[in-house]
Design a protein that fits this description.
The structure is a homodimer of 340-residue chains. Chain A has 340 residues and is of the alpha/beta class. Chain A has three domains: 53 residues, lambda repressor-like DNA-binding domains (434 Repressor (Amino-terminal Domain), Orthogonal Bundle); 127 residues, Response regulator (Rossmann fold, 3-Layer(aba) Sandwich); 128 residues, Response regulator (Rossmann fold, 3-Layer(aba) Sandwich), CATH 3.40.50.2300. Helices cover 43% and strands 16% of the residues of chain A. Chain A is built from 13 helices and twelve strands. Chain A has a six-stranded parallel beta sheet with strand order 2-1-3-4-5-11, with helices on both faces. A six-stranded mixed beta sheet of chain A has the order 7-6-8-9-10-12, sandwiched between helices. In chain A, β1, α5 and β2 form a beta-alpha-beta unit. The first copy, chain A, is elongated, with a radius of gyration of 26 Å. The N terminus of chain A is likely disordered. The interface between A and B is large, with 58 and 57 residues. Chain A binds a DNA duplex (16 and 16 nucleotides) through α2 and α4. Chains A, B: Keywords: DNA-binding, Transcription, Transcription regulation.
DNA sequence: TTGAAAGCGCTAACAA
DNA sequence: TTGTTAGCGCTTTCAA
């Protein structure tokens, strides 16, 4: 049952013996202390190499009360996180940034309350040094609880209600939507509609606001607004509504690529050519954007960089628990393809 | 610098004091030993609850030499893993299965040799109890090395060359391709082409073989084969080649949705209607499949279940290092949409 | 600059 | 059935 099987790894003790010094000295070398004589340093390094010594994390953790582990909690159920390269790119960015630290990345799906409890337990018990939370739902109490427990926490995506002191990383949804809409206007489009995302989610709200600001004070204004839920079907329905409301609509900014793809279908069904009759822009620059016909012009988010920033903030929080960290809002970019 | 800050968690010792028993007894209760008197059991349980005790994993690990952690290694660079819901669903399946065990899931990207070394080190050093490897490249030595080091390893996806004894989980690519092709045949299609994936990857090979078997002995046979690389552009090119080779082609099975999407574009450009003139089937049932126009009929893989099986095999390997585990090949399903 | 020694919190072997 | 005890491998004072 013990089933250890594997040969025992060399310990500090053995390295010390090999190098002819004490455990303390080896420990100092391993942890990069400066108060070690060049001679001892060299002897220890050689012994380490010779023995193939690697520190035992559990032992270290036991005494330092650090775990050198950060937890990525995906509070999903919102399928979006998992579709699209979003999740993967984010993880990649986080890993990238963490690879320069001793921190390991742990992953946990936690949508139910029970799973959230488990996260809190892990944190409280010192099994993780910090938490990255992504894909939060409306007023999820998890980040607040974690922060209250004194745990370093950072959020992927702006929380809908302000969580004083908990930093977040987000794409500049507002500016992205604004620039997409302005682009349409510059192309000479004058009846620019939008298909919004859910208005109880930050990206939904911000992207609508960006559209509004772009058209503020412009002739025609921002009146052609149809509600969607980020999903393709809702985009199709919304586009039909828009066409009914104003048959002369000549452009539409959709708050997601899926909705834009839906709009494309509705437009084709209505006999409108894209982009000739109606220009379409999506948001996310997802895989879908590249594979619709015509390919979607879309607002791209620097997802991988968002991951890196998340990790950077978290590391800062762990290292300097006191300091106030500002949210990071990263610029988006309009990727022009065929649809607008 | 110590920055512990957090209040110390209660220890076994304190629970023992509170319950009026010894540490040993508390340990037995915590670890579910049966040799504990009902009275002691109750007292300990109460003390645990009262104090909010949670075992310190580091301390436990130190003595048991188990880490209760499994590592998911994404040997990426092949972007596919990250696009599509693939990665997310897989992780979800793995998490799901592990949630019934004390095992935590760790994640690591490792494409470079240096990163592979780190994986081996983690394993050798007992920091992880087992490894799930996905997205392996051709003849990556990592699984062999890990297995040789005595570490439990399971593979996501059939390795291209047999790794004696290392179990894997895969979708039944061959059967999926075969049934898609047969479906086309049943629909009365008689000039059925295929666009293959790279022939140095198991899915590429298997899906071509499935196509071949479906048409073996049938009139026309399996002669309309064009090479692709799973990417959309290659699918578009391949479709043009096929049209040139046989303008009367009336169906095409593409080994990926992206290639199928490319084929769709080429067909539209050539003035062919889908599915009227040419039926198209893709593979993966990815997001793209749902958003092309017409929507793609596609072969779906039970990705989440693959994740669960992966975890199941790994747990079995960890618990019973000796036993031989067979590969698990899961059935695919043809999802019929508009394109065929 | 170094060594010695005291734990970190836990499991498991042994004795009672 | 229970208590006692010896470590697990490491970091970190404290003295030297």
């Amino acid at each position: 049952m013990t089933s250890t099987g594997r040969a025992r790894r060399p310990t500090l003790e053995q390295v010390a013996a090999e190098a002819g010094v004490s455990r303390g000295t080896v420990s100092r070398v391993v942890n990069g202390s400066l108060e070690v004589s060049p001679r001892a340093l060299k002897a220890v390094q050689e012994a380490i190499r010779k023995l193939g010594y690697v520190p035992n994390q559990a032992a270290r953790s036991l005494v330092t009360r650090r775990s050198d582990t950060v937890l990525l909690v995906v509070s999903e159920s919102e399928a979006r996180v998992f579709s699209e390269p979003f999740f993967g790119s984010l993880v990649r960015g986080i890993s990238q940034e963490l690879s320069a630290t001793p921190l390991q990345l742990n992953l946990m799906m936690a949508s139910t309350a029970r799973q959230h409890d488990r996260v809190e337990q892990l944190v409280r018990n010192g099994h993780v040094d910090g938490v990255v939370l992504i894909s939060l739902h409306g007023d999820d109490p998890l980040p607040r609880n974690l922060a209250a427990a004194g745990s370093p926490v950072v959020l992927g995506g702006r929380p809908i209600s302000d969580l004083g002191g908990v930093p977040y990383v987000d794409a500049d949804n507002l500016a992205g939507a604004k620039s997409a809409t302005e682009y349409l206007h510059r192309q000479g489009r004058r009846r620019i509609a939008t298909i919004t995302g859910p208005q109880d989610m930050a990206p939904g709200i911000d992207r609508l606001e960006g559209y509004r600001r772009a058209l503020r004070g412009r002739r025609g204004g921002a009146r052609l607004v149809a509600q969607g839920d980020f999903g393709q079907a809702s985009g199709e329905v919304a586009m039909r509504e828009l066409l009914a409301a104003d048959p002369a609509v000549d452009a539409v900014f959709a708050a997601s690529d899926l909705m834009a793809a839906g709009a494309l279908r509705a437009l084709r069904a209505a006999g409108r050519r894209v982009p000739d009759d109606v220009a379409v822009i999506g948001f996310d620059d997802s895989a879908v954007a590249q594979h619709t016909d015509p390919a979607l012009t879309s607002v791209s988010q620097p997802v991988q960089r968002m991951g890196r920033e998340l990790a950077r903030l978290l590391v800062a929080r762990i290292r300097e628990p006191g300091t106030v960290l500002d949210p990071v809002v990263l610029p988006t970019e309009l990727v022009v393809r065929e649809s607008a």
